[in-house]
Amino acid sequence: MIKEYRTISEVVGPLMAVDKVQGIKYEELLEVRMSNGEIRRGQVLEVNEDKALVQIFEGTSGINLRDSTARFLGHPLELGVSEDMIGRVFDGLGRPKDNGPEILAEKKVDINGEVINPVSRDYPDEFIQTGISAIDHLNTLVRGQKLPVFSGSGLPHKELAAQIARQANVLNSDDDFAVVFAGIGITFEEAEFFMEDFRQTGAIDRSVVFMNLANDPAIERIATPRMALTAAEYLAYEKGMHVLVIMTDMTNYCEALREISAARREVPGRRGYPGYLYTNLATLYERAGRIRGLKGSVTQIPILTMPEGDITHPIPDLTGYITEGQIILSRSLDKSGIQPPIDVLPSLSRLKDKGTGEGKTRNDHAPTMNQLFSAYAQGKQAKELAVVLGDSALSDVDKIYAKFADRFENEYVNQGFYTNRTIFETLELGWELLSMLPRTELKRIKDDMLDEHLSKGV
C-alpha cells in the first residue's frame, strides 16, 4: 500500500528520518518529492516503532524538511527481467544506460532473491573452460562454484576479468551460456576499458552489464551486485542458461557498507567494518549454485583488491570462509612481466577434483596437475636456495627443477590476456614441461600414463 507523509524530521548526510509512519517495512522503496518538484528515490534502512530511517540514492542536499513529502511505495527494490537484457548495459539500479529502449519486462523480481534450500542444491561438478591454463588445469572452475580472485592495487585484475568474460564456456555442451558483469564502484576509465573490450570482441552479445561508477551513491553500490545476481538467477533457473557472474570490485562494495554503517552510528567491527559483514557477503556469494531438476546454473567469480595486499584483511578473510577457494594475483610475477600474474601455489579451487577426469576433461588432468604443482614448488625452493648459497650448492636435479620453474612461469602461466587455450592444449603444454624432468622424479603419475604421453628417450 502506497503511503505519503509530510513528517520528515531530520536529514544527516545521505540519511533522512521520517516520523509517525505506519506499516513501513525494511528495505521498502520511497520517493521524496522536493519543493521544486524534483523526485528522488530512497530505501528504508531501519524502522523503530513509528520512525523510519531511510537512505536517499541521489543524496539529501536541497531537501526542505517542511515542504518535502515522503511517499512509501510498498515494495523493495526490484528489477524488471527479460531475455532482452542480454547484450544491454544498465546502471547500478538496473536502468538502461546504453541509449537503447526500455526493457519490456516479463516480470519484476525482488533483488534480494530467495534462499536456495540446501536440500535442493545439486553438487557443482561440470568443468568450465576459461581459456587460462593456470585456472583450467591447476585451479579448475566448475559450474555452480564461487571462486574469487584476490588482487592488489595496480595489478591487472580488470584485464583478467575481461579475458574470462570473453573466453569462458562450458565444455562439451550445447546449452546457452551467458555472462553477467557487475562493475561496482569502478572508475570511468575502467568502465570504458570493459565496454570497449566487450564491444570489440563481441562478448557484449552474450553479456548483461551493470555499471556502478565511483562517483555514484553508496546505496546504489550495495544494490549493484544484487541486480546482477537477480538477472543471473532469472536467466539460469527460468531460461535454462549457464550463467557466469563476474563482480569487480567487491572491496568497493564493502567500503560502501562501512560508509552506511558509520552514517547509522552502528558499533563497528574489525577495522571499522560492520559486524554483519560476513552475513552480508554470504547473502551474495551463496546465490551461486545449481538446483536439482533445473538445467541452468549460476557460477560466480567475485574480484576484490586486498587493501595493502593484506590477505588477512576482513574482506578477503571473510570471503575465503564463504567461497570455494581463491585465485591469487602476485605482484612479483606482475613486475617480472608474467601475464596474467596468477600465483598458482597459494591459489586453490576446492572443487577442482569434481570437474576433471575422463568424460569431463581428460584422465591425465589430475595426475599432471599434481605433478606440476610439486615440480614448480621444488623449483621455487631450489631458486631460493641458489640465492642464499649460490648455484654451486645445487645438485644436478635441483638445477633442472630451477630451470623448470622458469619455463613454467614464462611459457605456462605467461600466456597473455588474449591467448585462449583449450584444456587439451594446456595439458599438452604441461606434458612438454614435465618432459624436462628425469622420469624417476615423476612420482605422481602412473607408468602407463608416462609411457603414453612422454616423448621417447626421456
UniProtKB/TrEMBL annotation:
Domain ATPase F1/V1/A1 complex alpha/beta subunit nucleotide-binding: start-end pairs: 131-349
Keyword Transport carried by entry: yes
UniProt domain ATP synthase A/B type C-terminal: residue ranges: 355-452
Coiled-coil annotated spans: none
CDD domains for the chain: ATP-synt_V_A-type_beta_C, ATP-synt_V_A-type_beta_N, V_A-ATPase_B
Domain ATPase F1/V1/A1 complex alpha/beta subunit N-terminal as annotated: residue spans: 8-68
HAMAP family linked: ATP_synth_B_arch
Protein family membership: Belongs to the ATPase alpha/beta chains family.
Record's function text: Produces ATP from ADP in the presence of a proton gradient across the membrane. The V-type beta chain is a regulatory subunit.
Protein name: V-type ATP synthase beta chain
Species assigned in the record: Candidatus Enterococcus moelleringii
Lineage start: Bacteria, Bacillati, Bacillota, Bacilli, Lactobacillales
